[in-house]
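Dear all,

This email documents one entry for the complex benchmark we are building for the journal club exercise. For each entry we list the sequence lines for every component of the assembly. Then comes the predicted three-dimensional structure of the complex as a token string, followed by one or two observations. Please use this as the template for your own entries, and keep the labels exactly as they appear.
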Amino acid sequence: MKAKKGEWVKIHSIVLRPEERAPQVPEDTKKVPLETWVKGFLTEEASLGDIVTVKTYTGRLVEGTLVEIAPTFKHSFGENVPELLQIGIQLREILFGGDDNE
Amino acid sequence: MSNAYESVMSRKNEIMKKAVGIDYSVFESGQIAFDYEKMMHETGYTLEEMQKIQGETGVGNTPIYELRNLTALARKCAKEGKGARIFLKDEGSNPSGSFKARRAANAVYHAKKLGYKGVIAATSGNYGAAVASQAAMLGLKCIIVQECYDSKHVGQPEIIEKARKCEAYGAEVVQLSVGPELFYSFLLLLEETGYFNASLYTPFGIAGVETLGYELAIQMREKVGRDPDVVVCTNAGGGNLTGTARGLKKAGAEHTQVVAASVNLKGLHMASDEQFNRKSFTTGHTGFGMPFTTWPDRSDVPRSAARPLRYMDRYVTITQGEVFYMTEALAQIEGLERGPAGNTSLAAAFSIAMEMDQDQIIVVQETEYTGAGKHIQPQLSFARQNGIELKFGQPQDEVPGESIILPEHPRLIQAQDLDLVKIRQSLIKNAITQGAYTSISQEDLRFLMEETNADESFVKETLSELNVTVK
């Protein structure tokens, strides 16, 4: 997939390879690289996977691998959690439901 | 100049001096002691100045609500005659949705005054949005650096929401995978941009929270005619508690007990890639609370202005399940929908209120905004997706990283006391270990007494156990 010059994209790069990680890092974390993601406007037309330069919202020029075109946020209110529905019922019962619940 | 990890870390002090505009060396004694009050006085702002700075950007003067239904609930759950009146300071009504606006207001104001073109903050929490919001108001550029994803590129929903909020205010967000080397990326950014380090731990940041404690005391005097018996503060890096306690003192509320509360995440390593998404709280937990209380100078500035052990009278933990339960309770019976992390102190206060007499008063000093990702349902469903068992039961059976237990009855909500004696000993030990000292000065001794809020005999006894003499 191609992205045009000026399009809003997300890039990725490796900050530290596993062998470069700090000494105090736990073992599981030492096995993986330290990665970073930044968004910006693409300076040249490119395809996903290309090494590109973006201009970030503060105007920095940053290089990395193009991983997403027109990124947005998809976080949500999650799946229904049935247990939550019970809490309000229980509290109202205790507070306003009479002495049966003592 | 090399950008290799060790090389950048070795330039830390030099980078920080340029990026904070404070020469910390002038407050140093050469050994353990440094002049904390002088640092706060010479580089901070007076209470009146802070109120003015914050007032200009709509920060502060948040309302206090009496939580009548939660108080009634505590009384139904407590022993006869027990159940203090519970009040809540609604800090979520600050411009960026949390008390962090107070810290950011001063930091960003100071950056602008010193002529910096932009500000940078390293935070996965509400502070990012606070700095971004203030930078937007003052016309400065803003970069927020946050730890967000594990190695599978799965992000904590709460942190992703905070990234969205920062971008909404026009900030650039630099996201990283798990690891303390975030600090390395942060230093490189400071060096590259020449922006101001809007650290959470500078004197101006911490002094910004003093207005919270001060306001709280004044508002309670207006509402009930006296100071509260207890104020509960969520404790992570210690700035919230430090600033609030200093503000209470400035208002003359000398007899108010200050209680720290953290979510219990015992057993989870904060820098672990595998455990990153097995915790449901990204701040306000023991993973920050304990290390920062027992050694404040682990922050991103040479000397932290947040020194919570000087001010805390008691330190309790509360479980994730208890906080989630109380968050739902606050919405269901008080009509206030607020974010879970900010309700850590609320859950602790509900438990402590049940120990207190009915004519006593306890104040929860913060709330935070809520929304997609940063809300009890997405956080709990995310936990479930990550294999965390979620059920009703006894809160004390919860195992962080394995289960979240919602209390099957509110009377089971029970804050657990941490041993302040051990915490004080731990701070002293950390201070000694830091410089491998075998003897310390009288000045150091007095400093450790202040740091631990303990008397001379306690500090001397701890020192002698460590084979350290005082000259």
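Observations: Chain A touches chain B at residues 15-16, 20-22, 24-26, 28-29, 31-40, 56-60, 73, 75-81, 83-84, 86-88, 90-92, 94-95, 102 (CB under 8 Å). The longest strand of chain A covers residues 8-16.
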